[in-house]
Amino acid sequence: MRHFGHIPATARAGLFHREPCEFGADSPARVLAAALGATLYSPATRPRLADDVMKQVRRGVVSMVLCLEDSIDDGDVAGAEENLVRQFADLGRRDGEPPLLFIRVRTAEQISDLVRRLGPSARLLSGFVLPKFTEERGGPFMEALAEAENSCGRRLFAMPVLESPELLHLETRRETLAGIGRIVDKYRDRVLALRLGVTDFCSAYGLRRSPDMTAYDVQIVAHVIADVVNVLGRSDGTGFTITGPVWEYFRLQERIFKPQLRRSPFMEQRADELRTALIEHDLDGLLREIELDRANGLLGKTCIHPSHVLPVHALSVVSHEEFSDAQDILRPERNGGGVLRSAYTNKMNEVRPHRAWAERTLQRAEVFGVAREDVGFVELLAAGLVK
Fold first, then answer.
1. Of 291, 316, 341, which residue is a domain's last?
2. I want to staple 38 with a disulfide (CB 3.0 to 4.6 A). Which of 70, 264, 312, 341 is the partner?
3. Taking 80 as the threshold, does the pLDDT of residue 276 lie above it?
4. Residues of each annotated binding site
């Protein structure tokens, strides 16, 4: 699979200076962590789940989470597990490659039990999403994952969700973060990415952000995100990929503030129509949040609606300017440091301070590609909407 692999090769060639690479469930962890992109969540109770999964592949989805936790009623868990086993068996009989598939469990015991019940179709499973992850809860989860991996004979990843009240509350945050750091470092080879449960953070204080506001406008949430990145997202080799929080909105809502999406990138008629559609579906707030995710050290995003996937992927493509700067900074002859003017002659590139940014940019370029010099977000989004 590859990002934008659902559009014709001729269209990709017209969009990309360097096309996204191909990857699969057996690719190196560093590639998969960067390539997760918009991870689409789906309740495990859906009766035509196998059809839904393959439909989303045709729309450009590369990673999905099939949820047994908050998205379903407590009384539906047993039925949802049975449904998952049936749907995985169905997927195993189909042609075509499914996306990276993860199951969000409630308890550690579910991990080994589900892998056993999946049988041969466990080969389609990439791992598990672990809710309300702390040092205390994390140990049993990670041990169960190792046991399940041994029983099915394939690599399984963990994606812990950081959403516990202990992490949110100021008086316990430092200790909780340190504990999470210890457990994920112990099982570093099994942890693909860390996910942020911002909805649970808001719930602890009875808050819910409107579609006019990003997670970063809710200060109590913004402070937690900053602290998580500070401790667990460092670029010195000790950090992990941390994914962006869920965007909850996908229906028309009454506006309070002026639209945040500028008109300047939308000059052509089709692009102007696309801008209008984005605003009407409250996606301009999503676009702003995606940009803020990356500015704050996050990569990828939790998504609960298919309409969110393409904006996340389009904004993850590396611009030609970013690529040019990153390449200049990382040239071997620059190892001694120094400052240089960018090839675009609009900024300073300082080799040592910008090196970590450049390395992350080239990693993103590998999986999402590099846009041609005259191609921007609108062109990428419009191309991705091909039926």
1. 316
2. 312
3. no
4. 171, 200
